[in-house]
Amino acid sequence: MDTTIAAAPSGKRGRKSSVILIDRMCEKRVTKRTKIYDRKCPGLYVSITTAGVATFSFKFTDMCR
Predict the structure, then answer these.
(1) How does pLDDT run across 16-56, given as a tens digit for each residue?
(2) Concatenated DSSP letters for 10-49?
């Protein structure tokens, strides 16, 4: 079996990667819409638009069903 591992483009953060959100991350300018996920609170992320608007969102899934 032949396997090849391709490196991810630099400067891009994968969907599953996360950081501890701080205010400076929410104030930064971006060239395209960006989502930054919080490491300590699963489901919490901030979406930053090119206009500089930061919107916090929380994805909740009820796993008790």
Answers:
(1) 567 888 878 888 889 999 998 988 888 899 999 999 899 99
(2) TT---TT--B---HHHHH---SS-EEEEBSSSTTEEEEE-
